[in-house]
Amino acid sequence: MMNAFFFFFAGIFLNLTPCVLPVIPLKVRAVLKELDQHIMTRILVAIFLLMGCLVFFVSLGGLIAYLGWKWNAFFQSKVFIIFLTFFLALSAISMLANWSIRLPQVFYRIHIHRYTGAFFIGLLAAVLSTPCSGPFLGGVLAYALMQSPLVIMTLFIAIGFGLSLPYIIILIFPQLVRYMPRNGKIGRQMEIVMAFVLITGAIFFAKTFLPDFILFILWISVAVGILIWGLIGFKRAHILTESFVPGICILVTICIVFLVFGPSKRASLEWQPYSAESFNLVQSQSILLDFTADWCINCKILEKTTYASPEVIKAAKHVGLIAFQIDMTEYNEEEKKLIEEYGGAVLPFAVLINRDGKVANVFSGMMSAETLKRAIMQMDGNSF
Length: 384
Fold this sequence. Notes:
Number of domains: 2
Distance between the termini: 45 Å
Strand content: 5-15%
Low-confidence stretches: 103-111
């Protein structure tokens, strides 16, 4: 029971991860549309949203428990990534154009379309939670994979309940978001911002199948689009509250442009591509194994923050750390066995190995630069 409790909270915290961010606009839009409905309608919407989450997590739990699948196995399929990218892009276009995606007529004839929509939003939220692990989820998932099939299924159901809980609470108690703008100019501004979030999510996942120059054009196009929309909205604002959202968009766009056209890139660890031969050649040295993937948002954040920290780079040079990156964007049996050998369950995942060939530290999920620096300096008794 206590283990299920921890998994339940891990599911709640999944809502705070960058991986789930692209679907939050869809969930918010679906929830806000139902807040004026009768209590029984809202409860049914909440139940269908929960069912969408649970269908995915029960299926995934069964695949992991009985077939040995990994938490993020779906994202190693290029077909799945392409489908997800186009779905997010289509959803963003529907928000920008202010029209709803029409379901097949059969759903309208049987009068369950609002519930079907809630079901698929819950399902999509669950799917998007799989590329990365949320706060402390990596550790509990590693624990789960060592349990019996029945325990694994129970723990995955707990994750589904946790992921759905914030939206179920809002649907049942709409007074919690009474002052959130749903109509009028500010409400429309918020909806456009959410559409831009969906677009950025689609472009991020498109990284796995589009060439870099096309991605560059897409990023710049989105930045320009946000900037133009923000400037127009800022100019047309009649009161301070109407200028707040466009103003934030202008600041975000400036940050994006600065990151793209900045004077120089930040330094980072000197990564080497992993191979069994190159790994065996450096067995007597301090080693970092970083498991990553193009579809793992948290992995990319680590690369831009923790691994680019001057303190981490300094510590790595001080101990002569050899840093390997293992790219798990697509399925590879050798890489699958390697991450399992070190007890990895989800990405991001990193291992520090000391000069004696022993595992000095394991990081499942996000870690701060200070934590990694301290671990590097302690792995062989080093100090500055």
